[in-house]
Amino acid sequence: MVKRLEIDSVLAALADPTRRHIVERLAAGEQSVGELSAGLTISAPAISKHVKILERCGLLKRRLIGRQHRCRLGVQSLTKLSHWIDRQERYWNAALDRLTALAEGDKK
Amino acid sequence: MTKASTERDVLELQRIVAAPAERVFAMWTQPELLRQWMCPPDDTIEEVSADVRTGGTYRIVLRRPNGELWPVRGTYRDVRPPEHLTFTWVWEEDDPKDEIESVITIDLTERNGSTQMNFRQQGFRSEESRDSHVEGWSSIFARLDNAL
User: Is residue B12 within 8 Å of B119, Cβ to Cβ?
Assistant: First the structure.
């Protein structure tokens, strides 16, 4: 089971449109912080804050190459969240189908 | 008929069941019936105990195909046969602090012998993150399919 705090911090991180934008960019592959912020009309310190929040919840992984920070997607973190959400929906869709069949089958 | 919505923190599903509302309500409230459907087909229900009245509690233990046991429990908040049922839904965790409580509401409307069943599960996360008006994050998964 995925733990509450983990899920909450990922959801909170994705609540912000700028951070969602960054996450979507990361999906294209590893990038520098500079590349990530291209096209965004916010300051470098603000970008840095968003990157830190994403890093803290595991959505973003950072490594230093020379003097440059390279960022990539924390796939595991996103996968956990995705599975958790899917699990709710799959669970109930399957269960409600069974309820329907059972209720209808027994009415004759 | 199926309708799904994953907008924000709400899961909404709908079925038309060709059976009277009383029959459908019994499906949700009688342990021997619950046992026969309340999990995906690969799972089995190991045990069900349910005290179906407002304020009463229930506990269901699922057995996964890999043998794992997944207990879920909750409290009935509103029981009005045969058209309305509200209960909390909590997957038990080793540490209760990790548990996430959601609220499930079932509304049944009978028409010409068939019952429209509206299922709604809400509150997958803490108050704090719900207040941040999360919108659009679920669409991220559609775009990230390749990355995953």
Answer: yes
Checking A75-83 for CB contacts under 8 A at 24+ apart, the result is A75/B147, A75/B148, A77/A6, A77/A10, A78/A10, A78/A23, A78/B140, A78/B141, A78/B144, A78/B147, A78/B148, A79/B148, A80/A2, A80/A6, A80/A7, A80/A10, A81/A2, A81/A7, A81/A10, A81/A11, A82/B141, A82/B148, A83/A2
Using an 8 Å Cβ cutoff, are B40 and A95 in contact?
yes
B51 touches chain A (CB under 8 A): no
ipTM: 0.78
Residue matched to tokens 């390279």: A70
Angle formed at CA B77 by CA B123 and CA B62, multiple of 5 degrees: 70
The per-residue pLDDT for range A77-100, each reduced to its tens digit, is 888 777 766 677 888 999 999 999
Indicate the pTM of the whole model: 0.65
Residue of chain B whose alpha carbon sits nearest to that of A100: B17
Which chain B residues in 108-147 lie under 8 Å from chain A, judged by CB atoms?
A: 117, 119, 121, 124-126, 128-129, 132-134, 136-138, 140-141, 143-144, 146-147
Give B62's strand partners: B45, B70
